[in-house]
Amino acid sequence: MKVDKVRGRVLALMVLLAPCGVLAYPAPVPDPSLPASTVPPAIQDLRRKMNDADVNALTFRDMDQLFTTRTVARSGPVWELPRSDHALDFTYSFKGQRYTADQFLERTYTNALLILKDGRIVSEVYRNNTDAATRLMGWSMTKSITSILIGCAVQEGRIKSLDDRITQYLPELKGGGYDGATIRQVLQMRSGVDYEERYDFANPGIAARNHELALVENVVRFADAARTVKRAHAPGEVWQYKTLDTAVLGWLLERVSGGSTIAAYAAQRLWEPLGAERDGFFIMDGPPGVGREFNGAGFNATPRDYARIGLMMLQDGQANGHQIVPAAWVRESTKATGGPGPGYGYQWWIPNDHAFQAIGLQGQYIFVDRATRTVVVKLSYFPPENQEAHDETAAFMAAASAWRPR
What we know:
32% helix, six-stranded antiparallel sheet, 12 helices, four-stranded antiparallel sheet, disordered N terminus, hydrolase activity, hydrolase, Beta-lactamase, 6-aminohexanoate hydrolase, alpha+beta, signal, Diverse_Enzym_Activities
């Protein structure tokens, strides 16, 4: 395997396991060039600790207690999901051992698990004081939701072409690292900007600093780092996972939606026609009237509503009697164009030639298998940097997909 492919896989795994803060870290020395944070010190401290293994089973389900939020409102008829409940009567193999599906729940730090077959709920499990109404943090699954919204904007003609340069819509980015990159290249994580997704807070680089200032202290907007970021590679040349790319796509949505917000556009074009049963919400990178939705990793919803997203994608963009995005967009966005292993599409991970998935920090998954018409949603609280739980989940997903409830 070539060195660049190895490095790409290592970086991607680092991102899957820890894209937004690995362990609690002390408050940095204030930057005198920036305004003082108005976030209470105790809340800042909790935000720095929110991913830690001793609290994340709870923080991942209570993000509205830690952050200012913006609602993605549901409206209209709920898309009812029929049921055909079955015991999880299958096993899976991992590292030479065979385990039951019930053992999987505890072994991989599960808060909620939901499995659909042919559009029917066949299993729904809630743990650790969660239930069907609990809204859990999706982390980087939010990137895949952003991709859906970009598809909606293309369908509506708000974005004329994915091959337009991003600066055509966001002239604020002219002269910086994003100048010359197309929307398609940003969707593919091929922008070429110099933004290594590394969160070593003892030796903070651009990503760690942006996380602290935007999401902990709320003294800058997360996407604004795109104004000054440098270029590392020619656009389109190198795949490199960057939450900043998705933040730029959110800024683009904000711009083309006519001065609306990402949350309002998501409610109109996704959440209402999807028939969601509860409001979703984004965490914000600042206070009301100032902050933006953290659309790179900040969406929260119930397991059933995440499952509705997966089922909509399985059904080529159809949900609740609505064509939310064109079937061609679903196929295009879930086709590998780079990345480690089988690949990465337009903000979707591609595990094999018949499946795709949204994956979020520390164990959040919407897994879709076209071949078996399976959707699996798993919301978890992996300890930071736990690669084994991620690998075991992949083994479980394959077994759950092959499972035929009787």
